[in-house]
Design goal:
- The protein is an all-alpha fold and 262 residues long.
- It has nine helices and no strands.
- It has helices at 10-38, 42-71, 79-105, 112-146, 159-169, 171-174, 177-206, 210-234, 237-261.
- Helix 1 (10-38) runs parallel beside helix 7, helix 7 runs antiparallel to helix 8 and helix 8 packs antiparallel against helix 9.
- The mean pLDDT is 93.
């Protein structure tokens, strides 16, 4: 098995670099802008980031592993179950996580400005860890392939492992640049959603209305569930990403209106 025979269009590398800049640059610029404009604290962004790591990456992953052991991996391939379960799990862990952290660790200094900063941190670290680091890894692999050093990735591996690795990497040269570009484009809407959801949960804490937190869970579950459904049924990333942008735009407009009236 050899990787040296494969070459990747430079347009793919360019698309990945654009996604890398979007996924890392946008949250960083947003954080700096909000800190300077509103004198928001960096600690609020760090708490938002910590919330995502603790509740989404760790706790939610533990539950996923338990569900997989009980129901089997095949259950996650079925659309109704995957869309409903995946959406609800993301909504419950992330939105309840926001509520717990804001109420226990930010209550004394929690206001609408810090809530936005919290959302920047939450959505930002998700963008960096899930998309940014993936883009960095992909760029390294693509460059190695294009300079004829791809076989180094297979060095020392068993034949079966080499075959599996080639299959995993094949989308890098078989896919078009738009596939990689969507990764970064999606983050723009996703970060906007996290900022709005953080503000909604902040209002749940401030106004002592748990119904607002439940609403945040429902909106999060709806976003993820419908996105997966559209993507699976239509096979079109344009339609799926279009839904996310429309959803995020409506949510953002509503949030801005309430934010200004507060």
């Amino acid at each position: 098995m050899e990787l040296s025979q494969y070459r990747v269009p430079w347009t793919n590398i360019a698309a990945i670099i654009v996604s890398l800049l979007l996924s890392i640059g946008i949250p960083m610029l947003l954080g700096l802008f909000w800190e300077n404009k509103k004198d928001a604290r960096l600690s609020s962004a760090l708490k938002g980031a910590g919330t995502f790591v603790a509740f989404a990456l760790i706790l939610e992953s533990i539950v996923h592993n338990i569900v997989i052991k009980v129901m089997g991996q095949d259950a996650f391939m079925e659309l109704p179950f995957y869309a409903i379960y995946g959406g609800l799990a993301a909504g419950l862990f992330e939105e309840v996580g926001r509520y717990i952290v804001m109420r226990l660790f930010m209550k004394k200094k929690l206001d609408k400005t810090e809530a936005i900063m919290f959302g920047i941190g939450h959505g930002g670290v998700e963008s960096i860890l899930i998309v940014g680091l993936t883009c960095v890894s992909n760029v390294v692999v693509l460059i190695m392939l294009n300079i004829g050093q791809g076989d180094l990735l297979l060095k020392g591996a068993d034949p079966s492992v080499q075959t599996q690795l080639v299959e995993q990497l094949s989308p890098l040269w078989l896919s078009g640049p738009e596939t990689f570009l969507w990764m970064g484009v999606e983050r723009v809407a996703a970060i906007a959603f996290h900022i709005c959801a953080s503000y909604l949960v902040y209002r749940a804490v401030k106004d002592k209305k748990i119904a607002l937190c439940i609403l945040a869970v429902i909106l999060h579950a709806l976003l993820d569930g419908v996105f997966v459904t559209i993507q699976r049924l239509s096979g079109s990333m344009v339609l799926a990403e279009g839904f996310i942008y429309v959803f995020a735009l409506i949510f953002a407009l509503a949030t801005i209106g309430v934010y200004r009236r507060e």
